Amino acid sequence: MYKAIICGGSGYTGSELLRILYSHPDIEITSVTAERNVGSEITDLFPHLYPYKGLKFEPLDKETLFKKGDIFFMALPHSASQEAVDYFYKKGKKIVDLSADFRLKNLAAYEKWYEVKHHYPTTLKEAVYGLPELYRDEIKKTSLIACPGCYPTSAILGLYPALKNRIVSPTGIIIDSKSGTSGAGRKTDVSLSFSEVNSGFKAYKIASHRHTPEIEQELSLIAGVDLKVNFTPHLLPVPRGILSTIYAKVTKDVDIIEIYKNTYKDEQFVRVLDKGIFPDIRNVIGTNYCEIGIGINKETDTLIIVSVIDNLIKGASGQAIQNMNLMLDLPEITALNTIGILP
């Protein structure tokens, strides 16, 4: 039995980690931190997590926590993870960081897009980008995972087979993504209130969303060239789920759906749909699955990829647990082999 600690357990990713890990046979939650809720029970914030009644939020006291855990999930805000990750990593602990602090290998890019200085470049170099479908072997060998962002997960999984097999041009890629409101976190914000969001649908942070360099970093590695994308996020009037519609110019006359199916044939959590069938976010809500549908506009030689995930699971907490399973040499699907909920 491994002892797990969640640092930053008062948000949606923290609550999903607790919910999923409750059914994990090899994990015991020993501590959960939340600076603003120290002393409160987890069920005070999340009544649905009733099995954790009696477990209280603690302060993030690194020396105390170090003695209580084997694996650390860092569900802290961006920039807040840096020091704690560096501390626990250097102490020999296994870490899955759900923030952006160790995703971008280019320090200048991180400091530009997140507007904070990165103080631990040496530790940054040791982090493995935690997308199992691309980096499974590296994940198994590391002790520090930088868990991908939600938008990047949907975009990278959607484009990976096409770029890997050189069937689309690396220039002119358009990624049009839509996310439920939980993507903004659990916070008080008038713009995210029901009255503001309900019946609305809008784009935001056009040409300025900070997931852009993460998407470009990983797609460039796949394509073998330094590429740029047009990425536009939108806010859906639903609690959770991401749908990305991706456009890229076709460069080869091949059976693209077959290539996608062959690429992901051994992947537990990626489903490529048959010709003419496209995914709906409601079919992946509550799961760690990514579903992908493929279309081709022959009039414009454009590949149209539709990729859907649950932003809180495959886009965050579920993927974090998938990474943990690999790090600990446990079956990858443990606690994650669930089906969606409907309605």
What does this entry look like structurally?
The protein is of the alpha/beta class. The protein has 2 domains: 2-126, NAD(P)-binding Rossmann-like Domain (Rossmann fold, 3-Layer(aba) Sandwich); 151-311, Dihydrodipicolinate Reductase, domain 2, CATH 3.30.360. Helices cover 31% and strands 21% of the residues. The protein is built from 12 helices and 14 strands. The chain has helices spanning 12-21, 42-45, 62-66, 82-90, 107-114, 121-126, 132-141, 150-164, 194-197, 212-223, 256-263, 313-327; strands at residues 2-7, 27-33, 57-58, 71-74, 94-97, 128-129, 144-146, 173-179, 202-203, 229-235, 242-249, 270-272, 290-297, 302-309. The strands form 2 sheets. The chain has a 7-stranded parallel β-sheet with strand order 3-2-1-4-5-7-6, with helices on both faces. A 7-stranded mixed β-sheet has the order 9-10-8-11-14-13-12. The protein is globular, with a radius of gyration of 20 Å.
Sum up the structure in keywords.
12 helices; 343 residues; globular; Dihydrodipicolinate Reductase, domain 2; Rossmann fold; 14 strands; single chain
Task: Report helical residue fraction.
Answer: 25-40%
> Mean of residue pLDDT?
95
> Which architecture of the largest domain does the CATH hierarchy give at level 2?
2-Layer Sandwich
Shape: globular
> How many separate helices?
12
**Rg estimate, integer Å:** 20 Å
Number of individual domains: 2
Total strands: 14
Which structural category do the helix and sheet elements fall into?
Answer: alpha/beta
CATH class of the largest domain: Alpha Beta
Could you describe the largest sheet, including whether it forms a barrel? Answer: 7 strands, parallel
DSSP strand content: 15-25%
What is the first-to-last residue Cα distance?
A: 36 Å
Q: Spans with pLDDT under 50 lasting ≥5 residues?
A: none
Fold-level CATH name of the largest domain: Dihydrodipicolinate Reductase, domain 2
SSE order, one letter for each helix or strand: EHEHEHEHEHHEHEHEHEHEEHEEEH
